[in-house]
Amino acid sequence: MACKNPATFFLETLVASISGLFSKVYSAASRRAKEKYVKRPNDGLTHARSEILLGTRHVIDLANHFVYSDRANQVEAQNIDQELFSEFAFSVDQLMELAGLSCAVAISKVYPKESLTREKGAILVACGPGNNGGDGLVCARHLKLFGYRPTLFYPKKPNKELFQNLTTQCEKMDIPFLSYLPSDAQLIHDSYNLIIDALFGFSFKPPARPEFATIISKIQESGLPVISIDVPSGWEVEKGNPEGIQPEMLISLTAPKLCAKQFFGKHHYLGGRFVPPDLAKKYELSLPPYPGSEPCVELPPPCPPPEDNKDEKVKEFDSRVTSRIHDAWLTIEERACSGFSIGVKHMKASLMKTITESGIASDVE
Question: Where does the chain bind K(+) (predicted)?
Fold first, then answer.
């Protein structure tokens, strides 16, 4: 079927350009490897691997720019929320319910209840005083309905009726509330499987107040996998914070924020399937297609540039890049014409075969 949307034509051109770049990279690498292999077999193979890896990195950067170039900064995120409330007549509790549900669904996909062996699926949900904390309350309620055992830590409850209602709903569903966070991080580790970080959202500006800085520190010290809702707590929404919480999973809401570029965890999801097309167009949000009736979608990870001295988290992240290249291609294919995507699939299959045969995965690790 022919594409009528000019934006789709642009995507076709982008994919074609990337395809051509791959072709050139691998042709050049193949020629040079062949020449050097005859003289010095080991040097030739190493050289080929290096060239293919650098070429792959360059193409990933292009795909990275395509997928992540529309991240929202702090002002844009605030404006989008305000327009949802005013022009599109959404209520705060309505969006909070959709956001919290999408978070619970995403968590259930990555961490099935059966895989959580400690205390029959026990999860600690740390909630802050703002809307991000409200998302956490809703998420906990849905996780309870899904069969998990959430426990809430809500140290500063607002006096607003909305948050009081959310608290009552959780209490009526027999979700326990902690009056304080144990000072012993090991006790936290032994009592739960996961920690959901719903302390601060995109309105946060560092540094955190002392009482919340202590909470963030305890979450980090626990050693448990952390799932951050929208923005990892302690991070500046536009620049991130390498010293703050480093979550294993990030669930962006509405659209990924700028700080998501600094996220090197294992799983990145987008939730909150409520953005009207006109609003997405106004703010140039190139949101990925949601599968079927799902309220969330997994995003391909951003790729850090190659560096000689990488810390362990970046090395661990890098080792997964090769195996997940196809995720970025799937995103591009879904936005391009179906007929054109057939050619992309053939090209992608050839790429993955080349990487496997060349041993790139072991090099990246």
Answer: 132, 197, 233
Residues 348, 249 share a domain = no
- Separation between Cα atoms, residue 343 and residue 305, nearest integer Å: 28
Task: Determine if residue 202 is labeled as part of a ligand binding site.
Answer: yes
Is 63 a member of any domain? no
20 among annotated binding-site residues:
no
List strand residue ranges (DSSP E) for 112-248, in order.
122-127, 149-153, 177-178, 194-198, 226-229
| 339 appears as a binding residue in the annotation | no
Domain hosting residue 198, numbered range: 74-299
Residue 61 among known ligand-binding residues: no
Do 122 and 218 lie in a common domain?
Answer: yes
266 is in an annotated binding site: no
- How many angstroms separate the CA atoms of 357 and 273, rounded? 40
194 and 330 fall within a common domain = no
Q: How far is CA 66 from CA 57, 83, 255, 279, 325, in A?
A: 14, 25, 14, 19, 14
Residues 282, 130, 180, CA angle at the centre, nearest 5°? 150
pLDDT in tens, 201-253: 877 777 888 899 999 999 999 999 999 999 999 898 888 886 789 999 999 99
Does the annotation flag 293 for ligand binding?
Answer: no
Residue among 75, 78, 77, 64 nearest 261 (CA): 64
The reply to whether 134 sits in an annotated binding site is yes
Q: What angle do CA 332, 338, 342 make, to 5 degrees?
A: 80
Place of tokens 């500063």: 156
